[in-house]
Design goal:
This protein has 474 residues and is an alpha/beta fold. 40% of the residues lie in helices and 16% in strands. The chain has one domain: Glycosidases (TIM Barrel, Alpha-Beta Barrel), CATH 3.20.20. It is built from 17 helices and 15 strands. Helix 7 packs parallel to helix 9. The two termini are 20 Å apart. Bound molecules: 1-deoxynojirimycin (NOJ).
Length: 474
Amino acid sequence: MPKDFVYACAVAAYQVEGGWKDDGKGPSIWDTFSHNGNCALNATGDVADDFYNSFRKDIPLFKNAIGINSFSFSFAWSRIYPNGRGDHPNPKGIAYYTQVLKTAKRNGLNTSCTLYHWDMPDTLYQEYKGFLSDKFVDDYRAYAKTMFQAFGGMCDYWITFNEPKVTCTHGYGPNPEHAPGVKGPVTDWYTCGHNLLLSHAAAAQEHKDAGLKTPIGMKLDHMPLVPFDKNSAEDRAAADRANDFEVGWFVTPIVTGQYPKALVDAYGDSFPKFTPEQSASLKGSIDFLGLDPYTAAWATPIQNCNENVMSNDYPMCVRKFQTTPEGKTIGVPTGSAWNFLDPEDSVYFGLKLLQDRYNTSTLPLWISETGMTQINETELPLDRKTDDQPRVEWYRRTLESVKKLIDEGVPVTGFVPWACLDNFEWARGYTERFGVIGIKYDAEGKGSQERFVKKSAEYLKRVLHKGEKISTQV
Ligand code: NOJ
């Protein structure tokens, strides 16, 4: 591993903490969304992994079982400001995260702290629809400022937003599967993205004003599209167009200060615009870029496509798919319908694409999440849950691609398996398990909460902590 390489495991507040109204926490949009029965088997994050109470035992377990040198987590904004804003932060919220950070430090781990991983205080949605209003920018700026003041000396890396594209395309628009989950036109995606980007820029400015020297970045979902037929010029052009939506929508503004031209051209006047000051505030607003390259998809053009961009379909006159009518899949299927093992496309091709097309050649890159769930993992007997060879294979092949990138000079400086432990998988509730450490609970999230270490954790420790070969068998 290169020197100073960040090897973390990750969790996010709503997915693990529970304690949904403890110590003055206000409701988030995910509390409301899950309480309204929108998640598999009516699951909620009310208890989740009880990390709110168990972090003192869990963090040393992560360190010992996975061999990490870093811990990646997110703050629940509504623990800090129960209604999203206020004159003073909730002291109990500050005290809680202080303890989490101290526990990580005591265990020799550095920390990467995400300000926003999808759980906006519900009040901000009720008041002005969250990301659909530019009022969000000021509230987020004030929250970020509080966090830089409170934790500036304790967080080693800052991440402003987790997966902005999923935040907007899954939370808003014609088919929202995530909170807040209220239907609207496709243009809502781009309004959401625009306000999110401006909020990021505002936080980056606060970070600078606070005099912090710790790196700040953003963490993007990253599902590169590859031409279905690599020999077809049409498929290649379709993949190129689609990647300006998939990859370029957020990368380009934070690197160059502009939206990708193909995306703006596709939507014309209805696409949001930056003022020159906004562009300047975005350009170069990150010190590192996190990418979550779980999987990839194929692209082929939609023939005779008559400006389908404003419909519910995938934009840019592109058909995105992962399975052919004959049942051929882009990679090895997993327990999540959208996720296939195909790191040669998602990781290797995806990061090369960034370098070639979006001017990121010197920017430090992290694989800020990657991972998978075994098919029907919830129902497997305990020994098969523990001996998770498909997940070992996932990490083995993914690390091969990461190594190839590093060998070719791509500045990959971090690797973060998702997740440290099984957790609440959003709309899928507890029916899909991504942890390299398991939890004894059922598909409804009910059970003893006892932790158990999976083989994948052992594999990662042996390769990334002890320096054994990627081909190591466990
Ligand atoms: C990315 C998200 O950031 C995380 O919250 C989610 O659990 C994983 N993907 C797996 O779907």
